[in-house]
């Protein structure tokens, strides 16, 4: 799926706002992220999830939009609907670079909002070493502005990959899921870096 994404996204790619192509790019990003989650109902001690949509997110979405979705019977179409909502609610649609938007959305979707914001801000602090940025777990206007000032996207992709792996290694669940997470993370980095290189 990522190979298809890279080929198509390269055609649409622009350092400026996507404009008319924004919807197509968003659909491709959501498709790629969901492809890593699968349609199995996942249970652990704290919660259940399906297509990567955790139960607490689903309940919050149901309350906001007067839905009655159930995690056990969640369909792919419903998961895509929720994922698109999260992409906008987290303000990730404001990231102008499509590759960064995809990678960062995968972090937020897989790790949760706070983890996604912390990892992104840590990478931003390393990239923009002269800028003052508090790592507060909130992806606000300052963080988004700095994301949209990035010129060397290849360098940033490497930094955010490193920060993501380092963060995940601090989690107790790394022992169980670490190999799979690392494979997923490095897959994004390698293929996206290759796509960026093709454009230079």
Walk me through this protein's architecture.
The protein is mainly alpha-helical. Helices cover 64% and strands 4% of the residues. The protein contains 9 helices and 3 strands. It has helices at residues 2-12, 22-35, 55-65, 76-89, 98-111, 113-127, 141-147, 153-168, 174-199, and strands at 42-43, 48-50, 53-54. Strands 1-2-3 form a 3-stranded antiparallel beta sheet. The longest helix is centred in the last third of the chain and has 26 residues, at 174-199. Residues 11-20 have low confidence and may be disordered.
Key attributes of the depicted protein:
mainly alpha, 9 helices, 200 residues
Outline:
This protein is mainly α.
Largest sheet strand order: 1-2-3
Kindly state the number of beta strands: 3
Number of helices: 9
Indicate the low-confidence ranges by residue numbers.
11-20
Topology summary:
Layout: H1 2-12, H2 22-35, E1 42-43, E2 48-50, E3 53-54, H3 55-65, H4 76-89, H5 98-111, H6 113-127, H7 141-147, H8 153-168, H9 174-199
Antiparallel strand pairs: 1-2, 2-3
């Amino acid at each position: 799926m990522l190979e298809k994404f890279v080929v198509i996204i390269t055609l649409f790619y622009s350092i400026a706002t996507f404009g008319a192509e924004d919807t197509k790019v968003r659909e491709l990003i959501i498709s790629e992220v969901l492809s890593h989650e699968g349609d199995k109902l996942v249970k652990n001690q704290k919660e259940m999830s399906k297509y990567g949509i955790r139960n607490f997110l689903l309940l919050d979405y149901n309350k906001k939009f007067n839905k009655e979705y159930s995690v056990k019977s969640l369909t792919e179409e419903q998961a895509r609907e929720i994922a698109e909502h999260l992409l906008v609610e987290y303000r990730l649609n404001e990231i102008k670079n499509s590759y960064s938007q995809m990678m960062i959305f995968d972090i937020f979707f897989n790790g949760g909002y706070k983890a996604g914001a912390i990892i992104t801000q840590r990478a931003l602090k390393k990239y923009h070493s002269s800028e003052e940025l508090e790592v507060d777990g909130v992806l606000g206007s300052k963080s988004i502005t700095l994301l949209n000032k990035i010129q060397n996207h290849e360098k940033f992709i490497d930094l955010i990959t490193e920060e993501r792996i380092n963060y995940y290694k601090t989690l107790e669940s790394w022992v169980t899921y670490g190999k799979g997470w690392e494979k997923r993370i490095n897959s994004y980095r390698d293929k996206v870096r290759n796509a960026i290189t093709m454009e230079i």
